[in-house]
Amino acid sequence: MVEISRTKWSTDFSKWFRDVISQAEVYDYRYPVKGVGVWPPYGMKIRNNVITLMKRLLDESGHEEVLFPMLIPEDLLRKEAEHIAKFEEEVFWVTHGGKRPLERRLALRPTSETAIMAMFKLWIKDHTDLPLKVYQIVNVFRYETKATHPMIRVREVTTFKEAHTAHATFEDAERQVKEAVEIYKRFFDELCIPYMISLRPEWDKFAGAVYSIAFDTLLPDGRALQIGTVHHLGQNFAKAFEVTYLKPDGTHEYVYTTSYGISERVIAALIAIHGDDHGLVLPPHVAPIQIVIVPIPYKGVEKEVYKTCEEVYKELLKHGFRVVYDKREDITPGEKYYYWELKGVPIRIEIGPRNLKENTATISRRDTLDRKDIPLDRLIYELKKLMDDIKQSLYDRAWKWLRSRVGIVEDIEQAKDIVTKRQGVAVVPWCGSESCGLEIEERTEGRVLGVPLDEKYDVKGRRCIICGREAKHMIRVCKTY
Amino acid sequence: MVEISRTKWSTDFSKWFRDVISQAEVYDYRYPVKGVGVWPPYGMKIRNNVITLMKRLLDESGHEEVLFPMLIPEDLLRKEAEHIAKFEEEVFWVTHGGKRPLERRLALRPTSETAIMAMFKLWIKDHTDLPLKVYQIVNVFRYETKATHPMIRVREVTTFKEAHTAHATFEDAERQVKEAVEIYKRFFDELCIPYMISLRPEWDKFAGAVYSIAFDTLLPDGRALQIGTVHHLGQNFAKAFEVTYLKPDGTHEYVYTTSYGISERVIAALIAIHGDDHGLVLPPHVAPIQIVIVPIPYKGVEKEVYKTCEEVYKELLKHGFRVVYDKREDITPGEKYYYWELKGVPIRIEIGPRNLKENTATISRRDTLDRKDIPLDRLIYELKKLMDDIKQSLYDRAWKWLRSRVGIVEDIEQAKDIVTKRQGVAVVPWCGSESCGLEIEERTEGRVLGVPLDEKYDVKGRRCIICGREAKHMIRVCKTY
Q1: Residue pLDDT, tens place only, A251-307
Q2: Which class does domain A13-274 fall in?
Q3: I want to staple B274 with a disulfide (CB 3.0 to 4.6 A). Which of A186, A215, B201, B281 is the partner?
Q4: pLDDT, tens digit, 9 for 90 and up, residues A88-104
Q5: Does the domain formed by A291-390 have CATH 1.20.1640.10?
């Protein structure tokens, strides 16, 4: 454990984030390879709870889990021209087996479209094989040359959920894109993570896509973090890999494919957005520990206090709560509060002499740090209600915060001011041309997230913030990770 | 799908195995890299059920799940001399990131002792940090130069459960080894996979271990398959990585470590051992689909048949069975039987006109192919009982078969006969010397599995099958994968 030093969430986010993931034992980035990290037990439990949620949403919507190889031969990766052009600089290459050079180089998958298409070619024969919807949760690799950042910009993405689908028509693939967007909305809503959904500009779409839709959230330092992407791949990969299907009329056609992904960045966002100066704040349904019981054993009543705590503990277990009864005798209740607050446990129950007299428990919620006494016979009911309240409250607070950071402006200096000084997102009118888009980026020192798909901004009568021509869209711009 | 051609389980096991894993869609080895394969949805579900079982056993016994990086820098891998000496020829090396050569080569983990020890050094300070018991389920890589075999001898092991523990004393590590053996026994028992537990001979222990214990099972072709290993690593890795702890007396000592692993070979064994000429036979508790309902819709009673099937289907779902109602109208009931038998679904329910009249369902069990009629009002009870019966029956049959293949012999020619012609395991007296051990291997054309730990053979008065000196142990020898 590194020493506890609670830097401020709001004033030095980057340091806060690094400290809190170490101290709360979520992610350990001291492994001796740049840009890769270890998930210790507590972080692993958060990760598994988030994965379980994701899997449920995908399974319920007819996706099937699969597992593809990690190694992609160079010739396969090169089949789709745009794809390799983008990834070429970022791929780790395996060149030797033992002491021998390999006959052909093998890439550590940066993403799996090419591996998947090689098998889709074998799996898809007929229109009745479509749509085909699969996903896997795997590690992927990017040789990042920029500064790495734990969980956010890494060389081994340990937790990449990538879905891949194939369809008979462009329209059906588009319907799938919409389904994916809806699934991701539900996923982020469950995690109380607010988001902006944007159509990425042409110059920033996925390598090989017809178009890309992205989910971005905003971290406390005002930089957007891409937390999910959905790509319509058209027939681009199908043509490169010759994946066709037999139509009912006896002719063959290339399939249309989509892909959509989410990585452990969502867990980084979960931590970054809900946390505070005391440490993690976890939504109850993904918290590894939902409730901690801390006895306050004043002299003379220790036995009764422990007995009541034990009874409450058993009762909570019986009701399915993930609960810890912290019986440690070598540290004070205050130290326990500090420890469990750092870990982000949503609810703390204290039981001391006064509680015994009054037949109550004192309940403290992690998100607001509010405390109140609850009659023991209403405890289960109140805890269930409180879990819902905490979730709703985290959701509301996070969305309110994000919305407060977004400003519509029609002047490039004001846009730059929002992006560079006010740690926000500027929404500006844009003519739709790439040159103006790139100039927006240059002059605001930000990056264009794209055209909002989740908000209807009235563009009528507005003029492009760069060229002054009639605006076609409003567009989001801000600092990004 | 490849064309169905049911080769014989008992007469051409190798072909049977390749055919059945393809046709039942368990594992697809057509991916264009030698020795790696894809888990399609059905196989993935079997895999996930097996993993769930393993995780439960580990979680219940105080192990915590973690996730370590896939890349191990060369200097780390080289720290334990015996370890790298063994793995050097088998390691895949990453040498380039994008177009640039890396400063130091990175190995694709062949196993994670070295990565784990690098972090244990940071995590372990004090005797109160011990024992430390973690596990992960990850992909590992071996550059196999021998012929690869789907799921059995692969270059990417996709499903390696590796546990790593650290302890204050040699004895506590040994206690952990025993715990691991017990956990593995329960795991294989649950999967109805029979096993031989052997102390591997010195010349075949894990690279860096003090000793290695292995679980082997026997496949239908009489070759042993190693399905689990448990290693006492002593202080070998702790010394190489300088992992020490503070003792209560204020001095520092190196920790003692163990490691134990199981891979997807266990799923290969599950398929190989229980299967038959009709395809897979899955134990009910790990079968993705436990029950399939096939309507027999004779003319005139179709509606009633479908209605009853639907009712039964809903009832089974309500009781938590994993059930499929096969309503397909373009294939015959016979074709459905064939299809679901191939997939290894443990129980089939047929409902036709006669059943309607008699208020029964016809139940067919996959393992014996026996059929009988059950009154509908006893269906749930009978199905639960049948699931238990099938599991017990698979267990008994598999163990009986394994035991029938093991013979004690004191003559080297007889031993060779068992190993080479009777597809069995010879148990022979041995003086304990490496030279005699290696000669046993040479003269029987088999490999020594080691000294039995699960059977007490009386060695008194027996003489080494090679040198004629007093035997110290009985030792197992057979063909292996």
Answers
A1: 999 999 999 999 999 999 999 999 999 999 999 999 999 999 999 998 899 999 999
A2: alpha beta
A3: B281
A4: 899 999 999 999 999 99
A5: no
With an 8 Å Cβ cutoff, is B89 touching chain A? yes
**Is A428's pLDDT higher than 70?**
yes
Chain B residues with CB-CB distance to A141 below 8 A: 70
Model pLDDT for residues B45-55, shown as the tens digit of each residue: 999 999 999 99
Rounded Cα–Cα distance for residues A79 and A90 (Å): 17
pLDDT digits (tens, 9 = 90+) for A202-237: 999 999 999 999 999 999 999 999 999 999 999 999
Q: Residue B421: how many CA atoms within 13 Å on its side-chain side? A: 5
- At A64, the amino acid letter reads E
Of chain B residues 155-194, which have a CB less than 8 A from chain A? Answer: 156, 158
Q: A44 and B65: CB-CB below 8 Å?
A: yes
Map residue A165 onto helix, strand or coil: strand
Alpha carbons A192 and A187: distance in angstroms, whole number? 9
pLDDT surpassing 70 at residue A5: no
Amino acid in position A445: E
Greatest CA separation found in chain A?
A: 87
Name the pairing type of β-strands A223-234 and A473-480: parallel
B 118-147 residues inside an 8 A Cβ radius of A: 118-119, 122-123, 134, 139, 141, 143, 145
| Closest Cβ–Cβ partner in B40, B69, B96 for A38 | B69
User: DSSP strand E in A335-393: where?
Assistant: 347-351, 360-365, 371-375
Closest residue by Cα to residue A31 from B68, B387, B177: B68
Contact B379, B388 (CB under 8 A): no
**SS3 of residue B73 by DSSP:** strand
In order, the DSSP letters of A401-417 are: HHHHTEEE-SSHHHHHH
Measured CA distances, B300 to B306, B357, B376 (Å) = 12, 13, 22
Fold classification of B406-480 is Translation Initiation Factor IF3 (3.30.110)
Q: Where are the beta strands (DSSP E) in B235-358?
A: 244-246, 252-254, 256-262, 291-295, 323-325, 347-351
User: Which residues are CB-neighbours of B47 under 8 A, at least 6 positions away?
Assistant: A67, B39, B159, B264, B267
pLDDT of residue A3 exceeding 70: no
Give the residue extent of every domain in chain B: 13-274, 291-386, 406-480
Put simply, whether B37 touches A (Cβ < 8 Å) is yes
Question: Closest to B66 (Cβ–Cβ): which among A41, A66, A69?
Answer: A41
Contact call for B95 and A95, based on CB within 8 A: yes
CB of A52 within 8 Å of any CB in chain B? Answer: no
Interface contacts A/B by beta carbons within 8 Å = 146
Q: Which residues of B touch A115 (CB under 8 A)?
A: 31
pLDDT digit string, tens, across residues A316-325: 999 999 999 9
User: Which CATH code fits B291-386?
Assistant: 3.40.50.800
Mutate to test the interface with B, among A29, A39, A50, A67 (most CBs of B within 10 A): A67
- Please name the residue of chain A whose CA is at the shortest distance from the CA of residue B40: A66
Cα distance between residue B208 and residue B237, in whole Å: 7
Q: What is the pLDDT of residue B3?
A: 40
d(CA A234, CA A228): 19
Residue B234: which region, alpha, beta or left (left: phi > 0; alpha: psi -120 to 50)? left
pLDDT confidence of B87, banded at 50, 70, 90?
Answer: confident
Q: What is the pLDDT of residues A20-59, one digit of tens each?
A: 999 999 999 999 999 999 999 999 999 999 999 999 999 9
Alpha carbon distance B254, B246 (integer Å):
9
In this structure, are residues A425 and A224 in contact, taking their beta carbons and an 8 Å threshold? Answer: yes
